[in-house]
Design goal:
It is a single chain. Helix 2 packs across helix 3. This protein has seven helices and four strands; from the N terminus they run βααβαβαααβα. The radius of gyration is 15 Å and the shape is globular. The chain has a four-stranded parallel sheet with strand order 1-4-2-3. The chain starts with a strand and ends in a 15-residue tail after the last helix. It is α/β, with parallel strands linked by helices.
Length: 164
């Protein structure tokens, strides 16, 4: 039996401001650290068999503040937003009015196929594991991973918001 817990990192400056933060490696804000500590208290009694984290500071910090020592996995990096890195959705929609990450991908960054391959690769890594698995990553990639895990079309990721 396997139980999977997908955790989005705590607040960062860019997340707070609505900016797409792909591979820009920024730390948690003070609020993000407080959120991570609160989460740690909520999940401290869960006996995780396996704990994974993105190598990005925001995910690693959330994980370690929660009291865990994760295995770092590059497949858990946030979506590479390419040309949209650091932009808000409002700014992006001015240039491409129907844009959605889950249907269009990111110009100059990762495509839908790239994300599907990366999510599927991570799922293969944990297929044979049992017990409770914690996965610390970022919002859009975590939603894509969830869609792939549940075998739901990726475009439905928009329906699964993950807040800091």
């Amino acid at each position: 039996m396997k139980e999977v817990y997908i955790v989005r990192h705590g607040e960062t400056e860019w997340a707070r401001d609505g900016k797409h933060t792909g591979l820009t490696d920024i730390p948690l804000t003070e609020t993000g650290e407080i959120q991570a500590a609160a989460l740690g208290r909520r999940i401290e009694r869960i006996k995780f068999s396996h704990i994974f984290s993105s190598p990005l500071k925001r995910a690693k910090e959330t994980c370690t503040i929660c009291g865990f020592d994760p295995k770092i996995d590059k497949d858990l990096l946030e979506w590479d937003y390419g040309a949209y890195e650091g932009m808000t959705s409002e700014e992006i929609l001015k240039t491409m009015p129907d844009w959605k990450i889950f249907t269009h991908g990111a110009p100059g960054g990762e495509s839908i196929d790239d994300i599907i391959k990366r999510a599927d690769r991570f799922i293969k890594k944990v297929e044979g594991l049992d017990g409770k698995i914690a996965i610390f990553s970022s919002g859009h990639f975590s939603r894509a991973l969830t869609m792939r895990w549940l075998e739901i079309p990726l475009e439905n990721g928009i329906r699964f918001p993950l807040f800091t």
